């Protein structure tokens, strides 16, 4: 699904990613952990196509195709989804209408005709039931006055509706409350399949109490310095990151 080869990136002449290699197969959940400032969010942004970063070396392949020259929208249309990418408030545009437009734009970009209204309604009903989202929520203006948990719920709903091939969830350092964590985890667990892949980026281990990753990678100072199974997350929770630094010397 995703192959990253020797990715180097910088911002304002500051090197941030220093040779990232990562392979994520369909059906897998990968967690990327690491101390603050390691480059986790930068990696997520670059995969999604954020143009503020200068990629000096390396490749990003989605299903074998190099997407590193594509615009963010083009990557999205190919099935890359990054949470927190569009936390915009749009007064007067409901959650549902926003999703309808996004889905039809994506279909158009892929040469597929608009989704028939009855099919769209069915999809909305199915996904909102799956994620326990009530009708009132669907008719609210996008992100307007949303609580942290509601923003999360909306994002996961967007993810469910778009059915991305590659979902990247950046928990950020903003401290989600336990309800928001459960919403995210529940959504991911219900939506993962053999046809998609999920990359969860998290500073803390607690999200991984709910989403069980197949692989855990430690990103430090712009490099993946250690990879392992889910037990690595517990080890990090217990021992922090310093022991890895010590191992590297
Ligand atoms: P993490 O998500 O692992 O906490 P980030 O990817 O946000 O780390 O940041 C990695 C490093 O790159 C940090 O030192 C951060 O200050 C720097 N950085 C990231 N984005 C920018 C930017 N747009 N301008 C300047 N520095 C940046
Ligand atoms: Mg940070
Ligand atoms: Mg971050």
From TrEMBL:
Keyword line: ATP-binding, Nucleotide-binding
Record flagged with keyword Kinase: no
InterPro entries tied to this protein: AAA+_ATPase, ABC_transporter-like_ATP-bd, FeS-cluster_ATPase_SufC, P-loop_NTPase
Entry keyword ATP-binding: yes
Domain ABC transporter: 2-246
Domain of life: Bacteria
Single Gene Ontology MF annotation: ATP binding
Matching SUPFAM superfamilies: P-loop containing nucleoside triphosphate hydrolases
NCBIfam families in the cross-refs: sufC
PANTHER family linked: ABC TRANSPORTER I FAMILY MEMBER 6, CHLOROPLASTIC (PTHR43204:SF1)
Protein family (similarity comment): Belongs to the ABC transporter superfamily. Ycf16 family.
Protein name: Putative ATP-dependent transporter SufC
